[in-house]
Amino acid sequence: MNVKFPDHAWARLVSIAEKREMSVSDLLVEAAEDLLGAPRRERKRLAPIEPTKVAELHSQGLSDRRIALVLDASEGGVRYRRIQLGLPANGRKDITNV
Length: 98
Description:
By secondary structure, this protein is mostly helical. The protein has one domain (7-84). The protein has five helices and no strands. It has helices spanning 7-19, 24-36, 51-59, 64-71, 75-84. Helix 4 (64-71) packs across helix 5 (75-84). The protein is globular and about 45 Å long. It starts with 6 loop residues before the first helix and ends in a 14-residue tail after the last helix.
């Protein structure tokens, strides 16, 4: 399903999701369940993302998505940590043997 959000709303959703170290889609599902009065699902709590690991993998040219896969973390959480570290996003030059 495709849902269009105004840029300002999308930016807020991304920011909230990153702070909670979850994906925007999980955040939206959680919000919809709250709105509908559905019982809360247990959400897997991810381990804190170590800044040194993010910096090390970033220096190897990995994207946020690849770093998240290696660290078993959310992509949003990795992006949030990378931005905190002042690191630019890596392009699509990922190593494939991760």
